[in-house]
Amino acid sequence: MRSKGFTLVELMMVMAILAILAGVAITQYASYKNKTKAKDLITLAGACVQEILAHCVTDGNFSDPAALENCRTRNGTMWLDTISFTADPPFSSFSCNRTFAVTASAKIKGTDITYRATCIYDVSKEDISCSGPKEAP
Among 38, 64, 80, 88, which is disulfide-ready with 133 (CB 3.0 to 4.6 Å)? Predict the structure, then answer.
């Protein structure tokens, strides 16, 4: 006659499955937390693009975005170390009359993980689109 209940092997199998699920959940949660901390980069890249466009409206020959307050390398935020900005085409060859992209990048404080967010201004559509943050390779 078999007694009611679970065998030790059955209980060990359940524990093993739960341990695997917990391991996956914890790594995903850490990744989610870092990505959330990097969301500020979208706002910062967008602010740089907005300031560039404001200067282009008032001065069609504007050509030095690197000098703008919102486009300069700056100290980090609560979650991010030093924040830097790059552009495509580079700020040194900037023109108000063509499409450009601004990328803000920074490391998450306390880690070696760098995230980037990019905002693109499409001159033909007169539209700004932002993407990210994405972990930098």
Answer: 38
